[in-house]
Amino acid sequence: MQKGDPTGWFEALYREGEEGKSVVPWADRQGNPGLAEFWKTRPQKIDGGSALVIGCGLGDDAEELAEWGFRTTAFDISETAIRTAKKRFPESNVKYRVADLFQPPVEWQRKFDFLFEANTVQALPGSLRTAAIEKIASFLKPGGSLLVIARGREASEPEGQMPWPLTREELAEFIRAGLKEVSFENYFDNEEPPARRYRVLYSRPE
Ligand SMILES: C[S@@+](CC[C@H](N)C(=O)[O-])C[C@H]1O[C@@H](n2cnc3c(N)ncnc32)[C@H](O)[C@@H]1O
User: Taking Cα atoms as reference points, which of 49, 204, 56 lies closest to residue 118?
Assistant: First the structure.
């Protein structure tokens, strides 16, 4: 971060994780429990539609969406993360690819029926968040849905340490990017100590 490279450390950390020199704190090799829980009570339309997973890490959430029936693409800036995901799921139908959210393939514009974003925006410094959110929103088709799960904080609470939790005002950038907020949940997860999560469903009007 101090070298002016706010995303370069992800690849370095995944590489150290692969070599057993570091632990990648979020790479728990399980699907996001907030995604599964959401789907149980509020399953979204699948109908062979396309899904994109943002900052997919080692692939567990992408595998879940593919299992549910989405034609799923998943990307991450880290080559090591993508290589590991492919190795972990050799029979996968997910299209894994290395890509930078800030320079995405042009063909992803308004292409996907469903987007899943968990914990990527919060791992970026505040100065990059608006651009990150605009890029994520740009991938959604009219009529499509985006589910975001992130650590949350009230505006009056301190920013804290990495991963810097998001405020509701920061998340409102998705609305300024043309999406509609369908639901907003504010809850504490089962981690020890419990962390506040915001889980937000957006749609792009037809
Ligand atoms: C905090 S991790 C969360 C990973 C996963 N979504 C999860 O919830 O377990 C953030 C992920 O975003 C990826 N990432 C960070 N900046 C990115 C960028 N500019 N483009 C694509 N992926 C990025 C990182 O490599 C990392 O895998």
Answer: 56
